[in-house]
Amino acid sequence: MDIIRYGADYFDKWNTFVACSKNGTFLFDRRYMDYHHDRFEDHSLLFFDGGKLLAVLPCNRIENTLYSHQGLTYGGLVMNEHCTTVRVMDMFNALNHYLSVQGIESVVYKSIPHIYHRLPSEEDLYALTTVCHAHLVQRDVSSAIHCQDAMKWRRDRHYGANKAHTEGITVCRSDDYDLFWPILESNLMRNHGVKPVHTLDEMLLLKSRFPESIQLYLAHSADGEVLAGTILYVTPQVAHAQYISATPEGKRQHAVDALFDRIIRHDFASHPYIDFGKSTESDGTVLNESLIYQKEGFGARAVCYDWWKWSVTR
């Protein structure tokens, strides 16, 4: 088996493979990954056997540590549908040999949550423990709805959506990111003291590259004021809420309930999953109970985002 470090010559081959893989999403497309190429030393890898591409691993390097790409929410081994458990174990054996030659001493690996898999794709989890003797170092919890077997909403979420509609709030898909961004920035700074992961210009760039995969929904008051919004990252299996924010008035008028009434019950009612994102802080050790309470009120339940680490033996 040959392992080759990614370079621009593999741009098309990489993207074509990801699009046909059994567990990849558009986040692994180089047009997405490379928007912040200046922030990371990319050390992504391609796995070949007899000239055939079997898998890719999006990652970056800091000194003697290889990371599942730190610019991505998740990022384990992306495989074709012919990858079996034994074959993936072979890949991790080959990976450890490659890394030792490269002088890399440890690996931090973020597995791809199962809800994103087009086909079952947890061969890497088995190889992590049996081949690499990896240990779990971080577990974040997200909240997702299985749309084909959706649970009933909690009463306060029902009340909020009905109240919003009574007050004339309307929800629509929009391209007015510039209207949503000040709300998002203000909300994140006020509640968490942080800025969005993306700048507005970066999000507009990514939207231009993935117009159907990145969607903005806005909730407007009866007089046209933007009260809340959410940006969805849409993959074949999951509609993921990348950002959710409301103004103080939007919160008072339950604008977020109106947003997700439209998304869950109408536009994405037949999508396999809707994922509200993580509710954990401090590297997964602290649960934001009020945040997850709101998400679970829509019928969402826990999906874990796991980080693994192992030492490379020489």
Question: Can you put this structure into words, describing what you see?
Answer:
Helix 3 (85-102) packs across helix 4 (123-130). The chain contains ten helices and 16 strands. The strands form three sheets. A ten-stranded mixed sheet has the order 4-5-7-16-8-13-12-11-10-9. Strands 1-2-3-6 form a four-stranded antiparallel sheet, sandwiched between helices. The longest helix has 18 residues, at 85-102. It has helices at residues 11-20, 30-33, 85-102, 123-130, 155-166, 177-192, 200-209, 248-252, 255-267, 289-296; strands at 2-5, 45-49, 52-57, 59-62, 65-68, 78-79, 106-110, 135-146, 170-174, 214-220, 226-234, 238-246, 273-278, 280-281, 286-287, 301-311. With 314 residues, the protein is of the alpha+beta class.
Describe the protein's topology.
Blueprint lengths: L1 E4 L5 H10 L9 H4 L11 E5 L2 E6 L1 E4 L2 E4 L9 E2 L5 H18 L3 E5 L12 H8 L4 E12 L8 H12 L3 E5 L2 H16 L7 H10 L4 E7 L5 E9 L3 E9 L1 H5 L2 H13 L5 E6 L1 E2 L4 E2 L1 H8 L4 E11 L3
Parallel strand pairs: 5-7, 12-13
Antiparallel strand pairs: 1-2, 2-3, 3-6, 4-5, 7-16, 8-13, 8-16, 9-10, 10-11, 11-12, 14-15
Helix pairs in contact: 3-4, 5-9
Evaluate the radius of gyration.
21 Å
Largest sheet: 10 strands, mixed
Low-confidence spans: pLDDT under 50, at least 5 residues?
none
Termini separation comes to: 19 Å
Helix content: 25-40%
Count, helices = 10
Structural class: alpha+beta
Reading the helices and strands in chain order gives: EHHEEEEEHEHEHEHHEEEHHEEEHE
Oligomer: single chain
Mean pLDDT across all amino acids:
96
The 3D shape can be described as elongated
Order of strands across the main sheet: 4-5-7-16-8-13-12-11-10-9
Strand content: 25-35%
Number of E-state strands: 16
